[in-house]
Amino acid sequence: MKKISLEKIHQKHPQKTYLELYDYILKHMEAGDIKPVKKSGTNGKKPALFLEYWIAEEKKKRPDHLYIEELNFQLSPLLSNDYYLSHLERYEQDRKWVLLLDSFIKKHRDRIQIPVSLNERSFEIWHREKFLQKEQGKKILNRCGMELQDLNLYETTEPLAYYVQNRETPQNLLIVENKDTFYSMRKHLLSGSQKILDLEAGTLIYGAGKGILRSFRDFVFCVEPYMQEESNQIYYFGDLDYEGIGIYENLAQLFAASKEIIPFIQAYEMMLDKSKQIVRLPETREQQNRNISSLFFSYFTAEQVHAMKNILEQELYIPQEILSISDF
Asked: Which end of the chain is more exposed for a tag (fewer CB within 10 A), N or C?
């Protein structure tokens, strides 16, 4: 291996400032192109550089013709070769991952018929459970002209928390935004009551704020079969603020093609009635997204909508917690 002095490197790059020269040398050290000769000592500056470096041997030339042949004739036709034929250097870096994907498709394509979680599929193909989630797996797929859904996988969410009063169908499923209200309603049902206000709720679901949007995207994987019955009706109850209304509207949009999700109108009506006794309602948090549509309001009377909008426009809101177990 040959040596090169710091002075020589600087002479080859006279336009670089000292910090630029430092970054340049550090980059080549990390790439393994050069190694410091530690016995040479440092230059005494901050940050310090060694006075001499070993130059690594040049890497063997990439066998482009072999890669081109492999891409054109050896990979599964399900994998696109367009990107890598135009970026052979990138293929050299990604090759081991591409070949593992290719091998899985050729030998175990039947396994794709059975849906599994993202991390399970990731380990199945690349023997690294986080390869798709946190490493370069999605880039590899993209460069091969594939998408996540081509691997028939699902992304797992936090388990859906719910209380089952009964499993009869059809039934009403009530989603509750906040934990305190969920606990109060559950306690009310556990005490022997069949209804919450006038709603006969067979299942009570804890929404966990916006968490319900993540959970319901994988609804089919999160719940028991009886909850998926088409004849069931889903209701939603949350804070009377921009965020609570927004969560409802996003959830309703998510299910728009298959099921109507209805606001728990009687509970919202009771919130409005009780709010009249409050001298000053709490102020809306500044970070809330105020972009809501008219969907939520379409379920209420003109008088109720006016009262709700008046509260919101004053930058105030009504929390679910205005109602307690005695109200239910």
From this structure: N
Question: Which amino acid belongs to residue 25?
Answer: I
pTM (2 d.p.)? 0.58
- In this structure, are residues 42 and 49 in contact, taking their beta carbons and an 8 Å threshold? yes
Mean pLDDT confidence for 22-34: 89
Q: Is 35 helix (H, G, I), strand (E, B) or coil?
A: strand
Closest CA to 68 of 85, 82, 83, 55: 85
Task: Give strand ranges (E) for 87-230.
Answer: 116-117, 153-154, 161-164, 172-176, 195-196, 199-206
Q: Distance between CA 116 and CA 155 in Å, rounded?
A: 9
Say how many C-beta atoms besides its own lie within 10 A of residue 306's C-beta: 11
Give bridge partners of residue 3 from the DSSP assignment: 54
Residues in contact with 266: Cβ distance below 8 Å, sequence separation at least 6, in sequence order: 197, 198, 199
User: Measured between alpha carbons, how far is residue 1 from residues 11, 16, 18, 37, 183 in Å?
Assistant: 21, 26, 26, 11, 71
Pick the closest to residue 39 from 71, 3, 66, 78 (CA basis): 3
Structure token digits, residue 204: 């009570």
pLDDT for 215 beyond 70: no
193-218: buried (b, 16+ CB within 10 Å) or exposed (e) per residue? eeebbebebbbbbbbbeebbbebbee
pLDDT exceeds cutoff 90 at 78: yes
State the pLDDT at residue 99. 96
Dihedral Cα 227, 228, 233, 239, nearest 10 deg = 70
Backbone angles phi, psi at 201, to 5 degrees: -100, 120
Cα→Cα distances 162→23, 199, 207, 223, 243, Å:
55, 17, 9, 9, 22
Q: Write out the DSSP string of 69-113.
A: HHHHHTS-TTS--HHHHH-HHHHHHHHHHHHHHHHHHHHHGGGGG
Q: What is the pLDDT of residues 224-279, one digit of tens each?
A: 889 889 899 999 999 999 999 999 998 888 888 888 999 999 999 999 999 998 88
CB proximity list for 72: less than 8 A, separation 6 or greater: 81, 85
Amino acid at 115: P
